[in-house]
Amino acid sequence: DTSANVSQEVEHTITGIEPGAGITQATDKALEKYENLAGWEQEKSSTAAMLTALGDAIENEEPIVVAGWSPHYMFAKWDLKYLEDPNGVYGDVENIATIARQGLKEDMPEAYTILDNFHWEPEDMESVMLAAQDMDFAKAAQQWVDENQDMVDEWTEGVEPVDGTSIELALTPWDTERSSANVAKIVLEQQGYDVSLTPVDPSVVFEAIAAGDADASLAPWMPATHGDFYAKYEDKFEDLGENSTGAKIGLVVPSYMDIDSIEELEP
Ligand code: PBE
Q1: What's the topology of domain 95-246?
Q2: Where in this chain does the record put each ABC-type glycine betaine transport system substrate-binding domain (predicted)?
Q3: Atom of ligand 1 nearest to the CA of 24
Q4: Is the ipTM of this complex over 0.90?
C-alpha cells in the first residue's frame, strides 16, 4: 500500500475511543497540529468498538489507524506499532500519578501513607489485566495481592489499622485503572478502610478530587494524556507522585502497514 492508498482506504479517519478520554483530546490536537492531517477526522465511540474494528481490519489485512495505548493487551494479541509523532503531540513516556484531595493527609493519614507508597511496575498492572480477562477485576486484584504480599507489606509498613473509615477512590473506565484501583481497594480494606470505587471520565476525576467529593485517584496519566485537566485543577489537589511509569499513548497501526510516521498520512 502506498500512503495515499492507506489514507483513502481508511477514509481519512482515525478510529478513536470514548469522547472523554485524554487520548481523544490528544488526537483532536494532532488533527490541528499536523498539516498533512487536513481533512482527517477522528471517529469517537468506545474502546470496545475500536478493538473490534482493529481486530476486523487485521483479520482482513486492511489498513486502520487507531488511538492506542500501553499497557494494553492489544499489543500482546496483535502485531502493532506506534506511528512516530515528530510534533510530540502524544508525549513520550507517560507516568501514572496518584492524586489526593486537599486535607486527606490530615483526615486519613494512614490511607494517605499507603497511597503515597503505592508503586508498582507495568508488569504488575499487566498481570492483573491479563487475569481479569477470565475473572472480574476484584478477583484478579486479590490474586495479585496474594502473590505480592511482600510488596503490599512495604506500602503498609508501620501504618496503624483503622476501624471502618470510608474512603472513595475515583478511577477512569479503562483496564489499567480498574487494576490499580482494585488493588488499592484491597490493600486499604486490609488496613480496615471501607472503600468505594467510582469510575468516571478523566475530567471528572480531577473535578471530584478538587471539590473534595472523592478522596484520591491513581488514574491520571501524565504529562500528555491528562495534562490539560491537571493544569485546570492544579493547586486544588495534592500530587503524590507516580504510582507507575512506562505507559504510552499514540496512533497505532498494524505492523504490516507500510508507514512509520504520522507525517506519512496523506491529506
Ligand atoms: N487511556 C487509558 C486513558 C487513560 C488510560 C489512555 C485510554 C485516556 O486516554 O484518558
Answers
A1: Dipeptide-binding Protein; domain 3 (3.10.105)
A2: 5-147, 166-266
A3: 9
A4: yes
